[in-house]
């Protein structure tokens, strides 16, 4: 059981996300800042506090830090290079990670949307020596078998790999063959719900923290394989 009390995300959390999606402007947000503080941020921090102990006991341990830019992704969008200039993201994105940085380390993600939830695990954007180390491990039959088993475990929990980043095998690996070679065509390794999951009853109930821990354990072998 999770160590701290969390009653589940309230209907007000999803109502705030729906309202924000329909009224995505600074004026509306400032007029509803009290809802953001008490509901969006407050309930997120309560959930993180409830799972921080159990997360720290996993192997590898995952960090659960109840603050913005910790386990809570900021609600403000970076619109500098986007055609969509909506200033806020109408979702609540939580991260529990192993490593030095929540955005650059393997971890578990939970996302609340106005009309449902999503979840998954992994790490984006391996490059250079780090990507070479991953590919070397994939070429090792025993290490690859461990990864494939971890993928199966996460798949049973509802997550899936997306399309590979590359259309062809990378240079130096052209002779590889088998159904597993799509792994060599990836630069990021993320397993997630590819479609929105209708909000389950448990996300609004006291069992939410325990169910989130169950999902995390199902993705933990995948996180463990990717962890440095």
Cα-atom Rg, whole angstroms? 19 Å
Structural class: alpha+beta
Mean pLDDT: 95
User: Helical element count?
Assistant: 6
What does this structure look like?
With 228 residues, this protein is an alpha+beta fold. The protein is built from 6 helices and 5 strands. It has one domain: BirA Bifunctional Protein, domain 2. It has a 5-stranded antiparallel beta sheet. 30% of the residues are buried. The chain is 39% helix and 12% strand.
Question: Tags for this entry?
Answer:
6 helices; globular; BirA Bifunctional Protein, domain 2; five-stranded antiparallel sheet; 228 residues; alpha+beta
In short:
With about 230 residues, the chain is an alpha+beta fold. It has helices spanning about 10-20, 25-30, 35-55, 130-140, 140-155, 210-225; strands at about 90-95, 105-115, 115-125, 160, 190.
Layout of helices and strands:
Layout: H1 11-22, H2 26-31, H3 33-56, E1 92-97, E2 107-113, E3 116-123, H4 128-139, H5 141-156, E4 160-161, E5 189-192, H6 208-226
Antiparallel strand pairs: 1-2, 2-3, 3-5, 4-5
